[in-house]
Every structure is written in structure tokens, then in C-alpha cells.
Amino acid sequence: MGKSDEVRLDAKGLRAMANPLRVQIVGLLRRHGPSTATRLAQRLGVNSGSASYHLRQLAEAGFVEELTDRGNARERWWRSAHRMTRFDDRELAAREPDATRAYLQSVADTYALRARQALGEVETMPAEWRGVFDMSDWGLRLTPGEAVALREELTAVLDRHRQEATEAAASAPAEARTVSVILHMLPDLVDDEETEGHGQDAQDGGRGDGGDDDGSADDGGTSGIRGGEGA
Hints:
By secondary structure, the protein is of the alpha+beta class.
């Protein structure tokens, strides 16, 4: 069975993915390819029985599929059934508030974990990859419409690079590696009077503490709408 490009979460899928371990499992299979419960358990720091249980639940919901031509009865191999997940059904989010909150919290926790892991590895990265590592944020004064337009513009750039990378995968240079780009947009709805006196960053927008002048990563978060390969 071929891997489809994306899956849009329905009620069953949303409830199935409202678990941080399952979000991490799907992300690992997408980024690193097929694996077994034992291998995934080692990476996640859980026992293989737990990983196996969650893989079966994900398979039942259609997020992963077994590679029946690989492995054996004692060691089953699994792969992600899709390249990315999209959750943009606001009516579903309204009907399933608990599952929505649990899913988005699981995604947020997974992103934070990946950032901490990369931060822990940056000192041992080759110099050229240390120059790639970036953690940046901007505070922008935008209307809802302007914020949506910005998100769509950034997403279009990322989609173009993703498509180009997919098409060139077979001939990619030997030094090419997976680079995670995590896009967040976080509305900060603080009353204007509460921001008075808190400096230029709070009023007019500015680079956060982690930003470089030429930084390329925008650090923020989504609210009720998301799409991504890693979770």
C-alpha cells in the first residue's frame, strides 16, 4: 500500500491521537522510516509492550500500517500511513473539546521535547550543522486577517521546499539530513493597558531572547488549526 500525502483528522482519528506517546510514535515513523515496537520503545524510553499496544491502536485508526513482507511474528515492522496530519475542522474541535485539547497538548509537548533533544545535541554537531540550528521568535502587531495571511505565506514557502525535497530525494547529496521546521503562531491577547511600560518588544513587536538578526525560524504556536509531518 502506498503512503498518502496527508490525513485530515476526524473524530475517531482525533481521539486516537490525543495521546503524547502516539504523537511521538507517528512522528518518529515519518521522520526516520519504518521501525519495530522494540526499537521505538528504546527511543521513547518506554517498554516494548507499551509501544506495541499504541502501534496497534494507531493501526486500527489508520495512522500506521504493518509491513507484512518485513520482519516475523516476533518482530513486526511498522510504517506511517501518511506523510503529514492536518487538523483544521473547527466544528469537530467544538464538538470534541477534551480530545482537541489533549491532542494539541500532546503535539506541543512533542515539539518541546524535540527542541530540548536538539539543544542537547547541538554542541556535538558538525560545525556546518551548528550554523543551521536556530531558535527565534518575533512579536508582531497584526489583525486576525493579517496573521492568517502571514501563516499562509510561510506555509507556502515550506510546502515548496518540502515538495522540492521530496522530488529530489533519490538524488539528494550524501550530506543531506532531515531538518525540522516547527511553525507556531500564538495570539497574545493581553489588554493594551497591561502591556504599557513593558518595553518595545511588548508594544511594537521584537526579536525574543533566542533570536539572531538573520534567524530563519519563527517560534510561536497554532490554536485549533495545524498541519505537520512530525506529529
